[in-house]
Amino acid sequence: MNLRRKSIEMIKKYQHQSGAYVASPNFPTYHYSWLRDGSFIAYGMDRVGEHESSLAFYRWVHETLLNHEEKARRALDQHRMGKSVGPKELLHTRYTLEGREGQEDWPNFQLDGYGTWLWGLATHIELTCNRQLLQDLAGSIELTLEYIQEFWQWDNYDCWEEFGDKKHPSTLACLYGGLKAMERLLGRPELGQTAAQIRQYIIDAFVFEGRVHKFRDLASVDSNLLWLSLPFGVFEAEDPIMVKTVEEIERTLLFDGGGVHRYAQDTYYGGGLWLLLSAWLGWYYTQVGRYEDAKAIRTWIERQRNANDELPEQVPNHVNDPDYIQPWVKRWGEVACPLLWSHGMYLVLDEEIRRGEG
Ligand code: BGC
Fold first, then answer.
1. Helix (H, G, I), strand (E, B), or coil: what is residue 283?
2. Gap from CA of 34 to ligand 1 centroid (Å)
3. I want to staple 39 with a disulfide (CB 3.0 to 4.6 A). Which of 66, 117, 266, 338 is the partner?
4. Whole-number percent of the chain with pLDDT over 70
């Protein structure tokens, strides 16, 4: 079956009645809904006109955040009073499908999803002209805006749930994107001012040798740096900084005719090629007129589906370190498949290519 239709079906099928998108139905560790995965899945659904599904997700986020408002308010108050706030007192990156915090140990303090959901919601509102949502969801929008403004300068785990003692350009880009989107919709210049500070921080801390780096003191690159351009717009796609960053991603992380690593030292399941990142690179190509390259990536992704048309999180076609595959399989089982985020990003890429072709 056509993978676009199948992806839409799959995402709908595994969307919980609460509105939450499970990260992966067949991988116990991923039986949660992440703000990050969910917002990009919702964006994919919005792009193909499945607005009911994305709306249900955003309503779920709203309810979930309101259920944790007391906790967030306590953290905000403590911090404003100059008191210390521990990692356990901060909001989580993922919730059960019923909207509760998970109980097991997890690197929960990750800020990126809080920016991403605001950006996704704003995009949904713009695509559907449903401005009423700004009022309906005002409580969770305001809470998130305060939370981001208070804590954006804190070290936190990145979108790969690693390196919690650092700041990350991709995470900062998500926060920037969320603030800019809400500045636009709500007409609140102070949000744009914080966004401008974040952008300046990214430039000061992570741009050297003419490109963006994963860490401030290392000449490293991560495919999530694509997010700085798409969708969050810290840099335009044609900005020389972005062009040089993408060249580095292509030079060091792109293999097998369309597969993309997260970063060169990644050893999660050996560190294979991530479908959702391939879609991101293809998406970037559509923005700079490289449609043939984008289509080649789309074909590469389509080739990775299994007999049930499911897309995994990653494929072991070119792994950074094969010694790490078995230990992970033993710990958590086979690579997550289907991963709903892979399907969501496939929809984004497919839609961009179709639009480009007119
Ligand atoms: C990834 C996260 C993702 C989670 C659920 C993790 O392995 O690093 O980015 O949110 O899986 O898909």
1. helix
2. 8
3. 117
4. 100
- Reported as a pLDDT band with limits 50, 70 and 90, residue 202 is very high
Closest CA to 147 of 88, 65, 33, 217: 65
Q: Tell how far the Cα of 30 is from the centroid of ligand 1, in angstroms.
A: 8
Q: Contact at 8 Å (CB) between 144 and 80?
A: no
Is 266 a known active-site residue? no
- The residue with tokens 């060249």 is 247
Cα distance between residue 291 and residue 23, in whole Å: 29
pTM of the shown model: 0.98
Residues with Cβ within 8 Å of residue 108, at least 6 apart in sequence = 87, 90, 91, 92, 93, 94, 101, 102, 157
Catalytic site residue 161?
yes
Report how far residue 196's alpha carbon sits from residue 190's, in angstroms, rounded to the nearest whole number. Answer: 10
**pLDDT for position 165:** 96
> Which two structure tokens, joined as six digits, stand for 254?
């792109």
Helices 51-67 and 69-80 sit at what angle, rounded to 10 degrees?
A: 60
Q: How high is the pLDDT of residue 216? A: 84
| pLDDT single digits (tens) 284-311 | 999 999 999 999 999 999 999 999 999 9
Nearest CA owner, ligand 1 atom 8: 160
- pLDDT digit string, tens, across residues 308-352: 999 999 999 999 999 999 999 999 999 999 999 999 999 999 999
